[in-house]
Amino acid sequence: MSLLSTFQSDLNAVVVGASGGIGAAFVRSIGNSATQANIRSFSRSGRSEDSPKGEHIDITDERSVAQAAEKAASAGPFDLVLVATGLLHDGDIRPEKTMRELTPDAMATAFAVNTIGPALVAKHFLPNMRRGSKSVFAALSARVGSISDNRLGGWTSYRASKAALNMVLKTLSIEHARRFPESIIVALHPGTVDTNLSAPFQGNVPDGKLFTSDYSAQQLLGVINGLEPQDTGGFFAWDGQPVSF
Fold first, then answer.
1. Percentage of the chain with pLDDT > 70?
2. What is the DSSP letter of 53?
C-alpha cells in the first residue's frame, strides 16, 4: 500500500531542503511509494546524489524562493510541499547552554533559516496548492520548539526560532483554509535523526531513539497520509502523536 494513498495517484510533490538527510530521504520515499509522482527537489546546493535533477533555492532570499515556486508551478498545482530545512549549528554557531552565550548574529541567523525561510516558502508556494482534493504543506519543526514542553532551558535561539515557525504555520493555516478548505498546513517533529544536524548531540539519545533518515521520512509520510482538514494548524510527531505548542 502506498505511503501516500490518500492523495491523487499523479502526485505533484515539492521537497525544499532536498540535499539534507531527511530531505533526501523524502525524495527517495516519495519516489518509491508513488511511482507516478512528479517530484521537484530544491536545495541551496542544487543537485545531490539522491536528487540528480535538483534545483537551486536559497530560502533566505525571497527572489530565489519566488523563482523556485514559479518553476515548480509550471508542472501544475502542488499536492504536497515539504520544507525539510533547518539550522542548529554551523561553524561558530552552536546551541547556547546558557543565556551568557546569546549573540544577536547567531539568533538572527537561526530565525532567518528556521522561521523566515519556511515562511517565505509558504508565501510563494501556498497559492499554487491543488484545489478540490487533499493537499499538504508541512515543515520540519522540533519538539524543543514546544513552549509547554520546555523543562531544561538552553538552546534559546533554536527553541525560539522553531516556536516562531510553529506560530507562522498555525497563522497561515487559518488564512489558507478560507480559500483552500481541503488543504492542510502542519509542523512535524521528525524525532532525533542521524544527520549532520544532530551529530554533535547524539551522545544522550536513548537506545532505539536515534532514527535513520529513511525511517523518519517514511514515518512522517505515513503521518501526512493520515491527516485530514481538521488537522490543519497542528504539530505532529513522527509517530502521529500531537505535540503541544
1. 90
2. T
Measured in whole angstroms, how far is the alpha carbon of residue 9 from the centre of its chain?
22
CA distance 227 to 229: 7
Contact indicator for 234, 212 with CB cutoff of 8 Å:
no
All domains of the chain in start order, with CATH: 12-237 (3.40.50.720)
3-state secondary structure 89-157: CECCECCCCCHHHCCHHHHHHHHHHHHHHHHHHHHHHHHHECCCCCEEEEEECCHHHCCCCCCCCCCHH
pLDDT in tens, 144-167: 999 999 999 999 999 999 999 999
Using CA atoms, how far apart are residues 220 and 239, in angstroms rounded to an integer? 8
Reading phi first (left if > 0) and then psi (alpha if -120 to 50, else beta), residue 135 is in beta
Give the number of residues written for the chain: 245
Q: Is 54 exposed, middle or buried (0-12, 13-18, 19+ CB in 10 A)?
A: buried
Helix H or strand E encompassing 68: helix 62-73
3-class DSSP state of 33: helix
> How far is 226 from 240, CA to CA, in rounded Å?
9
Question: For a pLDDT cut of 90, what percent of the chain falls above it?
Answer: 79
